[in-house]
Design a protein that fits this description.
Elements lengths: L2 E6 L4 H10 L7 E4 L10 E7 L10 H7 L6 E8 L5 H11 L8 E9 L4 H13 L4 H12 L6 H15 L3
Parallel strand pairs: 1-2, 1-3, 3-4, 4-5
């Protein structure tokens, strides 16, 4: 087995990307939900997870656990976020992930796209914005999270597949 896709997807967004990416890879590609299993079976690891109000500050434990096992492996990451998905956020996420990548792994890149905010996050931001109408930061965060509804969309899913295909030189 050459490729393995592992994901952590409490809201289904990373799973959606994982399933789409698996379709462009060989049929023997392993696809694993990290809530169920955290083993390494292939040379090239494609790892996906969802950023949320917690993971924007820290890498999820199951992701850290898997990354630590990847000595001498190729690593590609795909991440969804209900927040901004610009180069600054991508750089921030890569900076947070870097300490967990073994020195001997070959990091190939990170694809970042919008993922729908959880209902809990939306409700929390709505409550805060309603109680604090002068808080422009909360208002902006709520607007960005409301704009995340319906994501990742088909375009973002296709871009994720193209990103992986380009890195792995798959046609």
């Amino acid at each position: 087995m050459q490729y393995q896709i592992s994901f952590l997807s409490p809201n289904g967004h990373a799973r959606c990307l994982a399933e789409a990416i698996s379709k462009i890879l060989p049929a023997d590609t392993a696809v694993m939900d990290l809530e169920e299993e955290c083993e390494v079976y292939a040379e090239t690891q494609l790892i996906g997870f969802e950023m949320n109000e917690v993971s924007i500050r820290a890498v999820p434990y199951r992701i850290m656990e898997l990354l630590n096992k990847l000595e001498h492996h190729n690593v590609i990451l795909f991440v969804t976020s209900p927040f901004r998905t610009n180069s600054h956020v991508k750089d921030l996420m890569e900076h947070r992930i870097e300490p967990f990548l073994p020195e001997t792994c070959h990091y190939l890149g990170l694809y970042l796209c919008t993922g729908q905010a959880s209902e809990a996050l939306l409700n929390s931001l709505r409550f805060h914005a309603e109680k604090n109408p002068e808080d422009k930061q909360a208002e902006n965060a709520l607007r960005r999270c409301e704009e995340s509804i319906g994501h990742p969309d088909e375009e973002e899913i296709m871009k994720a597949c193209r990103f992986v295909a380009e890195i792995l030189k798959i046609e």
